[in-house]
Amino acid sequence: MSPALPALAAPAHAAASAPDDPTLPGFGNDPWWLIGGKVLVIFVFLVVMVLLTMWVERRVIGRMQLRVGPNRAGPQGLLQGLADGVKLALKEDIVPRKVDKVVFVLAPIVSAVPALISFIIIPFGPTVSVFGHHTALQGTDLPVAVLLVLAMSSMGVYGIVLAGWSSMSSYSLLGGLRASAQVISYEIAMGLSFVAVFLFAGSMSTSSIVNAQHDTWYVVLLLPSFLVYVVTMMGESNRIPFDLPEGEGELVAGFHTEYSSLKFAMFFLAEYVNLVTLSALATTMFLGGWRAPAPISTVWEGANHGWWPLLWFMVKIWLFIFFFIWLRGSLPRVRYDQLMKLGWKILMPFSLGWILLVATIKAFKNEGYDVQQITIWIVVAAAVVLVGSLAWEFLRGGGDGGGDKEIVPGIAPGRAPGGADAAAGGFPVPPMDAPHYHGRGIAPAEPPGPRTPADAAARPESSKEVTSGTH
Predict the structure, then answer these.
(1) CA distance 342 to 337
(2) Residue 421, SS3?
(3) What is the distance between the terminal CA atoms of the chain, rounded to a whole angstrom?
(4) How far is CA 212 from CA 125, 160, 242, 282, in A?
(5) Cα–Cα distance between 32 and 120 in angstroms, integer?
(6) DSSP notation for 78-147
(7) What 3-state DSSP class applies to 288?
(8) CA distance 405 to 423
(9) SS3 call for 42
């Protein structure tokens, strides 16, 4: 018995001496069974998180709206998400005629797979011992790991666009085009919000970014970047108040109107997996990742060792998920022009100015200047520019193209007397007397009032102008 004791105690001693903070060179050395186990655990974790998020969302919004929420399937309705999955799997899979069947089937896969891949670079915790092998609680890491998440987010929108295009439906196509415009707008602002983090951490590796926050979280040092990311992650998730690609009020369901059964379930899965991924990315980039909050980490020495960091990581994720749910139950859907204006005219210029500010401060600090005095002057100058831009926007009327337009009897709403476009600078309205109406056998709109004999001779009754073959 005695010779076996040192062999059994060796892994525990090695685990105690192993570094807790994972480093980039430490990845890629795990055995094949450990790598496969990590992938399986991450997949199961995402599926379980989707089911729990659906249940929490329904229960929380039910309480906010003074109703019960799901309470039949399982204790307190916990199995409601599983019951919905079984229901979707057993529903008839309807494929409309005239659709592009290959693209129609591939679109949900293209939307769901990138959402699952993104979570592979999220760190769950420090280095731990698993069956005698020291490994990080993270699938893998890359020198440009954060760019992988942005790339997968961009790839996921292809599934949405292809779903709308292949459905051969006007409403589905409009939803897909809205999704592409929205993701392009907010993907740029999201990438810009990460630049300041890269400057401070000196790396794009997620494990290195978490290690760089061992003293102070970036939500404190880079609060403007964090606020920009919070807004952009709501735009990336396609949820209220930014769910314009799925606006049920005007598009029925948007890009997945024609989908049913498991194909619809894959879009549903992709949405909630993206919700979890965005929350985990916010935790990693700005909230110290798996590290415990300051009061706990200072009082308890072992808070950031072993398996305890997994608890802090989960608490932070659920706080962000609750924030998503709270917004959905509180805010109405915004207008599409407001969505685009927020992305292009507010978030992007603000992010660029903030990056210049951070880069300037870092450069002066590296040269040995008094950073505190320089920071004060730069912040004052930035505040003056911001207040001036807001004042200019307020004085010019918000850029909505003026007030209400006068309605002239006999003139189409989108056209002013003399042929000028009355909607110039605002929302264009197709004129009612467009030439293509004649080609379809439809008479143009006539101004109200009595018809003179000259008008009757020059223009017969509109009911007689219908061409043959048009009913």
Answers:
(1) 9
(2) strand
(3) 96
(4) 14, 36, 33, 15
(5) 16
(6) TTHHHHHHHHHHHS-----TTS-HHHHHHHHHHHHHHHHHGGGG---SSEEEETTEEEESSS---TTHHH
(7) coil
(8) 8
(9) helix
For residue 384, pLDDT over 90 is answered with no
Among 36-40, 58-62, 149-153, 235-239, the range scoring the smallest mean pLDDT is 235-239
Measured distance CA(223)–CA(208) in Å, rounded:
20
CA dihedral 190, 193, 194, 197 (to 10 degrees): -160
The two structure tokens encoding residue 130: 């698993």
Contacts with 305 (C-beta within 8 Å, 6 or more apart), sequence order: 20, 126
Q: Which amino acid is residue 147, in one-letter code? A: L
**Rounded mean pLDDT of 215-241?**
88
Percentage of the chain exceeding pLDDT 70: 79
Please say if the pLDDT value at position 26 is more than 90: no
Does the CA dihedral 286-281-306-319 come out positive or negative? positive
Residue 380 tokens read as 């004052």
3-state secondary structure of 56: helix
- pLDDT digits over 240-279, tens only? 788 877 766 666 777 888 888 888 889 888 889 999 999 9
**CA quadruple 277, 281, 284, 290: dihedral, nearest 10:** -10
Measured distance CA(142)–CA(128) in Å, rounded: 20
Helices (H) and strands (E) in the chain, counts: 18, 2
Whether residue 419 has pLDDT greater than 80: no
Task: Report the phi/psi class of residue 93: left, alpha or beta, with left for phi > 0 and alpha for psi in -120 to 50.
Answer: beta
Q: What is the pLDDT of residue 453?
A: 55
Q: Which residues pair with 415 in a beta bridge?
A: 421
- How far is CA 64 from each of CA 57, 59, 257, 279, rounded to the nearest angstrom? 10, 9, 28, 22
Per-chain mean pLDDT for the chain: 79
Residue 251, pLDDT score: 64
Local structure of 415: helix, strand or coil: strand
Contacts of 243 (CB under 8 A, 6+ apart): 333
**Which span out of 51-60, 162-171, 445-454 was modeled with the highest average pLDDT?**
51-60
**Of the candidate ranges 220-234, 315-329, 360-374, the one whose mean pLDDT is the lowest:** 360-374
Bridge partners (DSSP) listed for residue 129: 134
- Residues with Cβ within 8 Å of 457's Cβ and at least 6 positions away in sequence, in order, are none
So what's the pLDDT on residue 411? 44
